[in-house]
Specification:
About 15% of the residues have low confidence. This protein has one domain. It contains five helices and 13 strands. With about 220 residues, it is an alpha+beta fold. Helix content is about 25%, strand content about 40%. The strands form three sheets. Strands 2, 3, 6, 7, 9 and 10 form a six-stranded mixed β-sheet that branches. A five-stranded antiparallel β-sheet has the order 5-4-8-13-11, with no helix packed on it.
Length: about 220
Amino acid sequence: MTRSSKMAVMRSMLRCLYLVAALVMTGQAAHAHPHVWITARSELLYAPDGTITGVRHAWTFDDMFSTYALQGLESKTKGVYTREELAPLAQTNVESLKEYAFFTFAKAGTPGSQKKEKFNEPIDYYLEYKDSALTLHFTLPFKTPFKAQQLALEVFDPAFFIDFKMDDKDPVKLVGAPAGCKMNFVRPSDGASSQTLDESTFLNGDNSNYGAMFANKVTVECP
């Protein structure tokens, strides 16, 4: 595979993986399940005046996806990849994720009266390779930094093609938050429905919000 064709594949990384998954399915009904697994850590970022400025993510991909993503990528030392060598792939990752709103959804305001908050393009992004897995680090700045009595943040894939599992020890942090702010983090319910669906349902978008049942939910309340 030439470098140009490799980058073309990676620019449509997630869409390509959807198609690959479809090819290996039998075409018969199958239990809805993800094909890519991410272990995530997230930080909510605050300015000194209490303004919420953005969200910082660190997403560690499963071994299989990491191996796929690294195919054809050259490195000076076999099996070792520097941040500089991974830079083009990191850029391709964030460009591909833009189509999916970075699987990060935020609402802010007063309880019962919240509006969606939009993000700017990601900054400070890079990939690191450790223990046979790629971790994508990036920051999503809010388009308009704001103060809010309540912030609700969800991380999930609406189509449930990707399973986001927040880190067991350190899932979410508040960085620079004003004193008195309290955070509540709720993992997806173990009893979330795993209804039987045909794989084509996920490919054509008919069940495009199925993954909401598996959302990781963060709520921050400040005085």
